[in-house]
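Dock flavin-adenine dinucleotide; give full complex structure.
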Amino acid sequence: MQFQLTEDQRAVRDMVREFAAKEIAPVAAKHDREHSFPMATAKRMGELGLLGITVPEQYGGPGADYVSFALVAEELAVADASHSVIFGANASLSVGPILNFGNEAQKQRYLPGLSSGAILGCYALTESQSGSDAGSLTTTARKEGEHYVVNGAKQFITNGGVADLCVLFARTDSASKDAKGVSAFLVDTKTKGFKVGRNEHKLGLNASYTNQLFFEDMVLPKEALLGREGEGFKIAMATLDTGRIMAAAGSTGIARAAFEASVAYAKERKQFGRPIATNQAIQWKLADMDVTIEAARNLYLKAAWLRDQKQPYTHAASRAKLFASEMAMKATIEAVQIHGGNGYTKDYPVERYMRDIKIFEIFEGTSEIQRLVIARHVVGA
Ligand SMILES: Cc1cc2nc3c(=O)[nH]c(=O)nc-3n(C[C@H](O)[C@H](O)[C@H](O)COP(=O)(O)OP(=O)(O)OC[C@H]3O[C@@H](n4cnc5c(N)ncnc54)[C@H](O)[C@@H]3O)c2cc1C
């Protein structure tokens, strides 16, 4: 057993660390404040090959492994959680379904653009009445001759307002009410009948757009079907397994940013004539962060490694996502505490970390749903 990244993995991590520190970190607070989408740095992620990092060279990507993919998510999140999520919505949620379930024509048509950043993707599963119970979705895709006619609405779709391509999940079997009747489609967002609704006002992750989407008699050619009819739920869940590795790595990155800021502040800030870092109460908080960040990193790396080995990784991905997101929530709260009153102001970045992390306990399957997945593996039910 080796606890060592390969030369290629280290090179990816170091390159992204440098890029994120130089180009993303300086603009993160501004985009958060202005709730603006960071199109320039999003496009730069494409130029650097990050947005389709696991796409094989034959389809225009660098063909990196999933350990590298996860390291990218961590490094981006250290600089800015929103960038890590924009990356994930493209490199994982949009690329993944095409790479794993697309036919040759679909791969050739979409993967080069998604990899280079020429097009951005989104993944539209959630609806107002179907969140954790995703199989109960009600958007319909009615077959009419050689076409499908789509009607319905989605909500909370990351990148929804800026995407060129939408991986859409809709019900093709109107008689069914459960997961079996769901199919997946690749939709050009310029298609007539595709409408973007409001960008949600959120607690955090302000630089990442989260939109409603509406479909009004939207006509799709039969070539838009991804995989087979009725295979949509399987595609959606397989995609979320990898998304959970990304969410775990992103959480680890946010916690690391909170930790590094806290160590620096604790050494600098003096009360009672000495740095607050000399107090055991502060040291223990930092020690707990140090241990749990390392544990989270090992969990997500194990899940990514299993995926690279083509071994089952659903259980490992859920473990990593659950632990890392809850760990990072706690770490960011402690980071604000260590910063005292300053931590509660926008002069310091830790309040942003605390706001940004909360959603990692909710999207890609809530903590409760992760416990459900893990418990199923534990008790075999
Ligand atoms: C910023 C943001 C970005 C998002 N991005 C996307 C995206 O790109 N694409 C997409 O499709 N969706 C996206 N989502 C949606 C997200 O995945 C859902 O919000 C999430 O899955 C939870 O669904 P819900 O909000 O409907 O909550 P609900 O499912 O209504 O859950 C409410 C509460 O009940 C609990 N609960 C539900 N069922 C059970 C159960 N069986 N056992 C125990 N507890 C249960 C939940 O854990 C939660 O605590 C995003 C959401 C946000 C806020």
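Observed: Residues 234-379 form a domain with the Butyryl-CoA Dehydrogenase, subunit A; domain 3 fold (CATH 1.20.140.10).
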